[in-house]
Design goal:
Helix content: 40-55%
CATH superfamily: CheC-like
Number of strands: 7
Strand content: 25-35%
Order of helices and strands: HEHEEHHEEHEE
Distance between the termini: 16 Å
Radius of gyration: 15 Å
């Protein structure tokens, strides 16, 4: 199960970031560990839950404000300094919606999974390692020299 979701998340992030945000994510497996003891304050955290019968999967994405601002500027066709805090959160939620939607086209051939609404917020405290520990497995990327973390957890209900 983990391999299917991890592979699908990896493919989805690559496709969505390059086609919709004009950014190229390069996977860097050592980055999550290198960031573990760094402050999470001001980073954006987005999550979206998908469900089917007796299983829930939560997808998380974490990014520093500089990367989130670049994502928002690219999707809204603005300069990064023109992006408001509301735009930042809206774009992050939309990015998460696109990533998980793309992920589901890979893993859900029978259209059995149901997506909740994407959520996003600014983190106020903690360390990135603690934040990323919400996920059972984590992918880490260098996106135009800015870090990005993504992960999933699944559970039977």
């Amino acid at each position: 199960m983990e391999k299917i979701w991890t592979t699908a998340l990896r493919d989805s992030i690559s496709d969505v970031f390059s086609t919709m945000f004009f950014l190229v994510p390069e996977e860097d497996p050592s980055l999550a560990q290198a960031l573990a003891d760094k402050p999470a304050q001001h980073w954006l955290e987005g999550w979206l839950e998908v469900k089917q019968q007796e299983e829930n999967v939560m997808v998380w994405i974490w990014a520093p404000p500089e990367l989130a601002r670049e994502l928002a500027a690219n999707i809204f066709s603005m300069e990064p300094e023109e992006v408001s805090q509301d735009d930042l959160l809206d774009a992050f939620r939309e990015m998460l919606n696109m990533v998980v939607g793309s992920l589901l086209t890979i893993v859900d051939k029978e259209s059995l999974w149901r997506m909740d609404l994407p959520q996003a917020r600014h983190l106020e405290a903690g360390l990135l390692g603690e934040v990323a520990a919400k996920a059972q497995w984590v992918l880490s990327y260098d996106v135009e020299e800015k870090p990005l973390l993504a992960g999933c957890w699944s559970q039977q209900v």
